[in-house]
Write a structure and sequence with these properties.
This protein has 111 residues and is mostly beta strands. 8% of the residues lie in helices and 45% in strands. The strands form 2 sheets. The chain has a 5-stranded antiparallel beta sheet with strand order 1-2-3-9-10, with helices on one face. The chain has a 5-stranded antiparallel beta sheet with strand order 5-4-8-7-6, covered by helices on one side. Strand 7 and strand 8 form a beta hairpin. The chain is globular and about 35 Å long.
């Protein structure tokens, strides 16, 4: 499944909380992450980041990059491919709690 609302969006802000990481994009789109993140460099080096503080340096490095592809791998992992060649995977890791939210204007996806 593709997420066309994310394609072309430029990352303009990274907000770091105790339990979440919030990515704000230029087109009134926001992704709130409350789960671990897998980050992959253009060379294919992968890192599993288990909390927002650990993910912050990688996510800040994505500022001003655009999403060139966004998809969902069943049952609920979001894959974001950025214009700088980096990739972020956001998994649905907990069946009892929210893992992430995607907000596009008035439309919400909560997983």
């Amino acid at each position: 499944m593709r997420l066309p609302c994310l394609v072309g969006q430029e990352l303009i802000q990274v907000c770091i909380g105790a339990n979440e990481l919030i990515l704000n994009f230029d087109g009134n789109v926001r992704v709130t992450i409350e789960t671990e993140i897998e980050h992959r460099t253009p060379e294919g080096v992968a890192s599993c980041l288990t909390n927002p503080r650990a993910a912050a340096p990688f996510m800040v490095g994505l500022l001003e990059s655009r999403i060139r592809a966004a998809s969902v791998i069943p049952p609920g992992t979001v894959v974001l491919k950025f214009s700088n060649g980096e990739e972020v995977e956001i998994s649905d890791s907990n069946e009892h709690y929210e893992s992430y939210q995607i907000v596009n204007g008035d439309d919400w996806i909560v997983v």
